[in-house]
Amino acid sequence: MPRFERIAYKPIPVRELLSEMKNLSELMIDLAYSAALFNDKELAEDVLALESRIDTLSYLLDIEVMVAARGDPRDAEALIGVSTVAAATNKISDAAADIAAIVTRNIGVHPIVSSVFEKVQERLAKATVKEGSTIAGKHVGKLDLAARMGVDIIAIRRNKDWIINPEENEHILAGDILITRGAPQGTKQFKDLAEGKLTKLEETY
Amino acid sequence: MTEQKQFEEIVAQFVELKDTSELMMDLAYSSLLLNNRDLAEEVQRLEEYMDKLHTDFELRALTSDFKKEEASGFLGLIRLGVATEKIADAAAEMAEVVLRGIEPHPVLKLTIKEAEETVTQACVSSDSLLVNKTLKEARVHEQTGMWILAIRRGEKTLRPKGDTTIQTGDLLIASGYAEGVDDLKKLASPAQVCQVE
């Protein structure tokens, strides 16, 4: 049985809550597919933890929306749209948790799925940072991957832990396992960089 | 058909479910940002398409010649499919906000605009290198990192295909990381004189 605790009310602007819900729900989808494709239990468990974060955000957002709607039916009507979108991000995060549960409950996904995914142009990739790679020792922010290659590091596995959605000032170390999402072409290039097959970060555009 | 080939086709169907559900999310957010009914209706059409595709996918998975010891892996695949359907439903619910005919709340527009992965629109001016190029030739994604989700041409909304030719006055609706928005706008209207709406 899951445990439900009383959520303490904190005044947070709706915009901040919704932003976090949107970003987090999309991140969770990508992390969950990665966990399923790479059959990674720890990553799947982290997705489940994020799911409860979204539940909390959703609860706080409902409070804010109700407070904001006081009095005016037209305001209330426009705010229903906000609630609906927030509820949809919550549903998306539920779907991500469902995917993660395939891994945590030991059902697993048939290996052919991963092999087909490698062949199609996929946005998700896993790369291990080799000793001597150009990116080893660099800050995530300094690589400026989103602008240069259309790629984003969504998780780093170091020792036994996953660092989810690493901050700009996080260092990349040799031996790290990185999960990235983004443009297929940039993804391939980034994998080559991490694995030391490419040494220069080329400008693709 | 060999088993391998049969399985690969089932996974290819799943990939299509996954891609369609993600496209629907992007289109739903775009429809909210632009308060655009056509895009919202496109999401609803895709939802119907997903329903059909999903049923077909499940039937094929269930009737394929998997071995007993592969049942768990096939169950996992089927559950992945169910998740894509759930994501598609969520996108359709978002699009409904637009179809109800109420101007989306400003907070929604701000949130979508400022998100890490955003949606944007760019108008194609006559001096753009994109004019008269097919989408395949234009390589917009390679140049800007932005995916074109839809093209608004006059009253029509076109779904992008490789052989779609870009014309002056087209409004490109695209998604991607916020970093690519300016690149796309520069590519579509270099002199910044293009205005639609």
Give an account of the 3D structure:
The complex is a heterodimer of chains A (205) and B (197). Chain A is α+β, with helices and mostly antiparallel strands. Chain A folds into two domains: 14-104, Methane Monooxygenase Hydroxylase, Chain G, domain 1 (Up-down Bundle); 121-194, Alpha-Beta Plaits. Chain A is built from seven helices and four strands. A four-stranded antiparallel β-sheet of chain A has the order 1-4-2-3, sandwiched between helices. Chain A is globular and about 65 Å long. Chain B is an alpha+beta fold. Chain B folds into two domains: 3-106, Methane Monooxygenase Hydroxylase, Chain G, domain 1, CATH 1.20.58; 116-188, Alpha-Beta Plaits. Chain B is built from seven helices and four strands. In chain B, helix 1 (3-34) packs antiparallel against helix 2 and helix 1 runs parallel beside helix 3. The longest helix of chain B has 32 residues, at 3-34. The interface between A and B is large, with 51 and 59 residues.
Based on the model shown, name its key terms:
heterodimer; A: 205 residues; alpha+beta; Methane Monooxygenase Hydroxylase, Chain G, domain 1; Alpha-Beta Plaits; four-stranded antiparallel beta sheet; 7 helices; globular; B: 197 residues; 2 domains; 12% strand
